[in-house]
Amino acid sequence: MIGAVLAGGKSRRFGEDKLLFEINGKPLVLHTIERLEGCSSIKKVIIVASPQNREAMEEFGYEVVVDDLTIGPISGVYSALSLGDAFVVGGDMPSLIPEFIDYIIKQFNNSGKIACVPRWSNGYLEPLHAAYSKNFRDILEERIEKGLYKLGDAISSAKNVCYIKIEDLPLGWRESFFNVNKKEDLHRIMQ
Ligand SMILES: Nc1nc2c(ncn2[C@@H]2O[C@H](COP(=O)(O)OP(=O)(O)OP(=O)(O)O)[C@@H](O)[C@H]2O)c(=O)[nH]1
Ligand SMILES: [Mg+2]
Q1: What's the gap in Å between 45 CA and the centre of ligand 2?
Q2: Which residues of the chain have pLDDT under 50?
Q3: What is the DSSP string of 106-131?
């Protein structure tokens, strides 16, 4: 399974490219990648960049896929799946828990479903902490062509998805969903 790191966002709330912002002397995206590399079921990490930050992302030495659409996470996942099945995360998720990710990938492999996505009991999904089959790409393509850009809606529209009930999991695993959106979010990781 590929670990795909979405890195083609606009960082509007953060004010500068948050993925290159150094935390304890290391760019945010590398903190995220380090966590992904700790997953025993992830064999290779790729970065899904925008045309704008492609060069900066290539500096890190990982395979880079360019997302030419950059219409949000949906085109990031679409681009990632061109390389095969992938576990997809945002590059702004430095608190990923490898054990949790391995758990989802195991459920994905056992289920034979098109995707395996954590879901809260209120129906809210965590699509940037989920496993996707390369076959899900066709569904995304159809949605994108129709101008339907919400990744969560694309998942909900698919019939063969396996959902993981978050409330049934260890409480500590919820930390894995933490993502940096604003400068003040950094307090939570810079102790
Ligand atoms: N490849 C790709 N990645 C994206 C795209 N949009 C968002 N991402 C990434 O997905 C993750 C979560 O997105 P957001 O938190 O909304 O990030 P953002 O768009 O950079 O930030 P805001 O402008 O503040 O919403 C981040 O790591 C982004 O870099 C996109 O269009 N393409
Ligand atoms: Mg975010």
Answers
A1: 19
A2: none
A3: HHHHHHT-SEEEEE-TTS-B-TTEEE
SS3 letters across 144-180: HHCCCCCHHHHHHHCCCEEEEEHHHCCHHHHHHHCCC
CATH 3.40.640.10 fits 2-188, yes or no: no
Per-residue pLDDT tens digits for 102-131: 999 999 999 999 999 999 999 999 999 999
Distance 180 CA to ligand 2 centre (A): 6
pLDDT of residue 124: 97
Sign of CA dihedral 50, 56, 60, 62: positive
Identity (one letter) of the amino acid at 42? Answer: I
In this predicted model, what pLDDT tens digit does every residue of 154-170 receive, in sequence order? 999 999 999 999 999 99
- Does the annotation place 138 within a ligand binding site? no
CB under 6 Å to ligand 1: residues?
A: 6-14, 48, 67, 70-73, 75-76, 90-92, 128, 179, 181
pTM, whole model, 2 decimals? 0.97
DSSP string, 33-45: HHHHHT-TT--EE
- Domain borders along the chain are 2-188
Mean pLDDT of the chain: 97
Count Cβ atoms below 10 Å from residue 48 Cβ, excluding itself: 29
